[in-house]
Design brief:
- By secondary structure, this protein is of the alpha+beta class.
- Helices cover about 35% and strands about 30% of the residues.
- The protein is built from 10 helices and 17 strands.
- The strands form 3 sheets. Strands 2-5-6-8-17-9-14-13-12-11-10 form an 11-stranded mixed beta sheet. The chain has a 4-stranded antiparallel beta sheet with strand order 1-3-4-7, with helices on both faces.
- Strand 11 and strand 12 form a beta hairpin.
- Helix 3 crosses helix 4 and helix 5 crosses helix 9.
- The protein is elongated and about 65 Å long.
- It starts with a strand and ends with a strand.
- The mean pLDDT is about 95.
Length: about 300
């Protein structure tokens, strides 16, 4: 028999220890990360117990009568340890759904954790979603990912790299988030009339909390920043949370030099290097110029899927 309890602040240490021990956990599920934007969401994360022993976690927030897992994260989903079986996870979903009905929820939106983040196979939740909850796939985003078997750069990326090398563009790790954010904000405003998901102050806070997981790499010439990428490091995946270059940096191949270094030197042995999604909205709108760039570095498709079901 499983019992479902709503997360409270007193559970933070227990929660974080379980995340670190889980098959799918990344620092995005640590309460130090999840709670930075707690004012934007009504947290309704769940702890699932079996015989008074913590069995699973579900990072989640409430939006009216809908439970999201999680609206403020790139991915959500059930976190389990290596002992969890398919039957166990099915039982957990029965318990979760009974709890949600009693709490007045009518719908669940479940943002599954892509398998590249799994330290061990962990798709029991997908089986339970379709066979226990009758969930339907409602959103599919596409990301571009490389394994340790690196594909060659396309000729356009090689050309940019040669130009960057001729111009003496250098790549280094830095903590100058202000310089990068200036380039990023100008780029997003000019191209998409948009702003970064995180503010500069939010990212500075998160960087102080997770300095080993959040890293910034910049390409520059003569001390002038031309472009960079903000990296999220997790046990299985290096993820580019933000990528941006100035107009000069684009012309001079700054990003080609940057990713040549990251892919073939700094992170050459990391199991997965994920460039992030290139689809907008519900996934139907493919940003062709963006994915063209990522595929030019050798990235190939990995899907980020959302499921939905009625309680």
């Amino acid at each position: 028999m499983m019992e479902v309890r709503r997360y409270t602040a007193s559970d933070a240490e227990r929660w974080n220890l379980f995340v670190a021990d889980s098959r799918q956990g990344t620092f995005l599920f640590d309460r130090g990360y999840m709670d930075y934007h707690r004012s934007r969401f009504t947290d309704h994360s769940l702890l699932i117990y079996r015989k008074e022993r913590l069995f699973a976690l579900l990072p989640a927030n409430a939006d009216g009568d809908t439970l999201w897992s999680h609206q403020g994260l790139t991915y959500g989903g059930l976190l389990t340890n290596e002992r969890a079986t398919v039957a166990d996870v099915c039982e957990a979903f029965h318990a979760i759904n009974a709890y949600l009905r009693a709490e007045g929820f009518r719908r669940v939106v479940y943002k599954a954790i892509p398998s590249i983040y799994h330290r061990l196979p962990a798709e029991e939740d997908l089986y339970a979603l379709t066979n226990i909850c009758n969930a339907r796939l409602t959103v599919r985003h596409v990301s571009s990912t490389l394994t340790t078997h690196r594909l060659s750069f396309t000729e356009s990326r090689k050309s940019g790299l040669r130009k960057a090398q001729r111009l003496g563009i250098e790549v280094e790790e830095t903590t100058d988030l202000t310089a990068f954010w200036s380039i990023l904000e100008q780029n997003l405003q000019r191209q998409y009339a948009a702003r970064p998901v995180h503010t500069l102050s939010e990212m500075e806070l998160l960087h102080t909390r997770f300095p080993q997981n959040i890293r910034l790499f910049m390409a520059s010439r003569g001390g002038c920043p031309l472009g960079g990428t903000l990296i999220f490091e997790t046990p299985q995946v290096v993820h580019t949370q933000y990528i941006s270059a100035s107009e000069v940096g684009k012309r001079e191949g700054a990003l080609d030099a940057l990713f040549d270094y990251l892919l073939h030197d700094r992170y050459a042995q990391v199991p997965y290097f994920d460039f992030g999604k290139s689809s907008d909205g519900d996934g139907h709108a493919l940003n062709r110029s963006l994915i063209f760039q990522k595929e030019g570095f050798g990235g190939r498709a990995v899907c980020y899927d959302w499921y939905e079901y009625d309680i």
